[in-house]
Write a structure and sequence with these properties.
Largest sheet: 5 strands, mixed
Number of strands: 5
Number of domains: 1
Distance between the termini: 21 Å
Order of helices and strands: EEEHEHEHH
Strand content: 15-25%
CATH class: Alpha Beta
CATH architecture: 2-Layer Sandwich
Number of helices: 4
Strand order of the largest sheet: 3-2-1-4-5
CATH topology: Nucleotidyltransferase, domain 5
């Protein structure tokens, strides 16, 4: 199996996590500083290529009521540009509400690492949902 990359896209940073080859566990990888869509897409593409990823789980920053707001539009615009360069990589949207809060509970380190931890929480939630489907 190939590794899965997960992104927690924020206004200033993008948290990145990568699964193991068996797609059982998500691990924080790094935090990317935002430099505009073109540069951001290049950074994400480098990570996906390095991981030989065919799937990317992207946190969808829904409002608390479940509606899509401005933040969702920004994330979708970034990923639309990414998909133009890497159409072979499947984009999987995952509700990221509360991922940062969960990462903060699990990790008391500095704020910057929380973005990668939040990406790992997003990825692990998706991986766990796959396992639950397999058990049904």
């Amino acid at each position: 199996m190939s590794r899965v990359v997960a992104l927690d896209v924020g206004a200033r940073r993008i948290g990145v996590a990568v699964s193991d080859e068996l797609q059982k566990f998500g691990h924080p990888k790094c935090v990317l500083d935002r430099h505009g869509i073109e540069k951001d897409v290049q950074q994400i593409l480098e990570i996906a290529t390095e991981a030989k990823s065919l799937q990317m789980v992207v946190g969808l920053p829904l409002e608390l009521n479940g509606r899509e707001g401005r933040r969702v539009s920004r994330v979708k615009a970034l990923m639309a540009s990414f998909s133009e360069l890497a159409p072979e990589i499947e984009i999987i949207w995952w509700d990221e509400r509360f991922s940062t809060a969960e990462a903060l509970r699990e990790n008391k380190r500095r704020r910057r690492s929380i973005d990668a931890e939040a990406a790992a929480v997003i990825l692990q939630g998706w991986l766990d949902s796959l396992e639950q489907k397999d058990e049904s």
